[in-house]
Amino acid sequence: MDTTCFSESIYNLIPIDWKEPPQPPRYSSIFKTSVKEDMQKHKTAMKTMGPPKVEVPSPKDFLKKHSKEKTLPPQKKFDRNEPKKPPVPLRTEHPVMGIQSEKNFINTNAADVIMGVAKKPKPIYVDKRTGDKHDLETSGLVPKYINKKDYGVTPEYICKRNEEVKKAQEEYDNYIQENLRKAAMKRLSDEEREAVLQGLKKNWEGVQKEFQSLSVFIDSIPKKIRKQKLEEEMKQLEHDIDVIEKHKIIYIAN
Fold this sequence. Notes:
Layout: H1 3-12, H2 32-41, H3 105-115, E1 124-126, E2 133-135, H4 156-182, E3 185-187, H5 190-212, H6 221-246, E4 251-253
Keywords: Cell projection, Cytoplasm, Cytoskeleton
Protein name: Enkurin, TRPC channel interacting protein
GO molecular function, one term: calmodulin binding
């Protein structure tokens, strides 16, 4: 067999108008725009890369000669008639000495100590045998809070809150009582009970007659639905009739 003919026949099986199927569209989230706007809204300018635009210096603000040199204060005019500072004392001048006080500091200090009030030591407590000392007032061991005037008295805001809770409970109880009074039960008389019972039996007979008139072959979905509905109605009517026949006294809500 000729190989050239075989290869040509294989290649000829490929249709000439065959095209590559188009690629499916790339997925794009519907929240892309909102996320981009949120990122731009909360983005901090000049955080890592500096300001977005740098101001270019003006060509008029060029560096001039001696512009960074320190300037001296203006020179003052010398005046001979300006008052001078006091002269330095001479070596022959001596300060006034020999002044003595008649106050007896020893007796004065002793009188202050005798007449003064002794300083009370700071109350402390020791909690270890090694002698660790702590402040007694801030330890909570001193019963100073029970001696306050308002100790044990219920705060005003708690009393106000309790009154509000009590008032709300009373309003709720009144609302419940009013609803119970409106929804008072009423007893059916024997005539009304008999009339309701006869009405239910009559409805059951009508549903049963309609059920018996159905076709023998239930071969469609509407027929099946109709049959199921009639069976449920008959079952509910039978349950109601049974309840009324068992109970001689029946109450209903107004």
